[in-house]
Amino acid sequence: AAELLAAEATLEAIDGQLQEQKSLEARLTVKSPRAGVVIPPPIRPPSDTPGRLSNWSGTPLEARNRGAYMEAGTLLCHVGDPRNLEAAAVIDPAQVELVQVGQQVDVHLAGGPVAALAGEVITISEMNLDASPPELVATGDLPAQSTSDRPGTRGNLYYEAIIRLEPSSVAMLPGVVGRAKIQVARQSLFSRFRRLLGQTINVVY
Hints:
23% of the residues lie in helices and 21% in strands. The chain has 3 helices and 7 strands; from the N terminus they run H-E-E-E-E-E-H-E-E-H. The chain has a 5-stranded antiparallel β-sheet with strand order 3-6-5-4-7, with no helix packed on it. It has a two-stranded antiparallel sheet with strand order 1-2. Strand 4 and strand 5 form a beta hairpin. The longest helix is centred in the N-terminal third of the chain and has 26 residues, at 2-27. Residues 148-154 and 199-205 have low confidence and may be disordered.
């Protein structure tokens, strides 16, 4: 009887450990809220911090990164339709009045094919770049932090235009940087001069 009680206690403890391991395994199972194709995230450059061991680089999907330690919140991948992509264009406030929904856009990827990707502006919204996108900071197109020192301002104010890209055979990864040429409406000479004058007054102020 004594051995039976000890065996039951041991079995209960082992069962508790098993349930804990199953819970950990469930937490390590990544599930997507939608169906689609697994698309690799932006490439992570190697870490060159002196005095520290090198961290993983590239993407979490690469075989060489199996078993690597990943911090909480690490982007593992994107799940979507590679044939149905969108691009986000950052627009200066001085130019946003020329941009309208429905305008055609030519997107040229940095280091990509010579031919431009065709698209259309579907939304325009205000965005506050207190923390600029790292892809644009790396290219020097945007500051890393807010440069505004006026009281009551909201940092680096820009506008974001979402562009729906037409289906293309060009393989693209999220985070690719490029240039967007929006086909705006023709402006009269007076309109151009008035807009230039407004920009000059803003700068002097």
